Amino acid sequence: MTEEKVSTLIEHLAELRMRLIVSIIAVVVGMGVAWNFSNNLLDFMERPLTGRTYLTEIKKDIYAQVKELAPGLYSYYKLEQEVNAPEKQRVLNYSAPLEPFFMQCKISMLAGFVLALPVVFYQLWLFIAPGLTRRERRMVVPFVTAGTMTFCIGAMFFLTIIWPVIINFSLSYEAEGLQSWFNISAYVNFCLRLILIFGLIFELPVMALILARFGLVTYKMLAPNRKYALLASAVVAAFHADLITMFVIMIPIYFMYEVSVWMTLIFGKKDTVEEPEGQEA
């Protein structure tokens, strides 16, 4: 390796270190801001423990139709008991000193990271900007805005749609001799991990769009590999123990890949067709 290449590599590493330092400072500041409402975030995560979610309202509507159309089945399966079931007040438990404090730190850290996403994406853009053309550098605002919004949409999609399904499924195993007892560390760590996963999953179309605009990814490259994308989605989701969580991760991953394929088709660089010599346009 020549001295020039070594010098260039050192400059890139120094640039990367500076961008990482700025991003970490932004996350720490965001963590300080998020600390003030971390308890509210924990309360939002605990809502499905009551057993009253949007799924409960859907069940009520379905059971109301069953009562109207088939009252015999309604009384035979005792659906009225499920409709009028009392709301249970379940709480999280902890068994180690300072365990709630560390969980509050983790919640604040992830929330601070979300608040610092515009800075993080902007630092990422500044790191890759020297290799871009002047026209490509103008995409910084769409990149930062789209990257931040899609991550937040993915996180909210999980918390409002997927998380109640997972907890509702877990609570369905409660019986006379089997009661739930959720530990705060397992509960919060599981939720935060999935929030991060879903946020990153929803980033796939944005990354595909950026790469397509740069000509690095094309529709013809992604479309034939759908079966491999489905396999990769299943492999990534298989790292989670239970089958329900595996499917709720695998389906959005593949769906975001499909969205990415169509994004490259619509917004990717178009193939230019050269005119034969001597032919007028």
What does the model show?
The protein is globular and about 80 Å long. Helix 1 runs antiparallel to helix 7 (117-128) and helix 6 (99-115) packs parallel to helix 10. Helices cover 72% and strands 0% of the residues. By secondary structure, it is an all-alpha fold. The protein has helices spanning 3-34, 38-46, 54-69, 71-76, 79-83, 99-115, 117-128, 134-137, 140-171, 184-201, 204-213, 219-222, 226-237, 243-267. The longest helix is centred in the N-terminal third of the chain and has 32 residues, at 3-34. The protein folds into two domains: 3-55 and 99-173 and 191-267, no CATH class; 56-86, no CATH class. The chain starts with a helix and ends in a 14-residue tail after the last helix. Residues 272-281 have low confidence and may be disordered. It contains 14 helices and no strands.
Helix content: over 70%
Largest sheet: none
Number of domains: 2
Q: Which series of helices and strands comes N to C? A: HHHHHHHHHHHHHH
Report the radius of gyration as a whole number of Å.
Answer: 25 Å
Descriptive key words:
2 domains; disordered C terminus; 0% strand; mainly alpha; 14 helices; 281 residues; globular
In short:
The chain has 281 residues and is mainly alpha-helical. 72% of the residues lie in helices and 0% in strands.
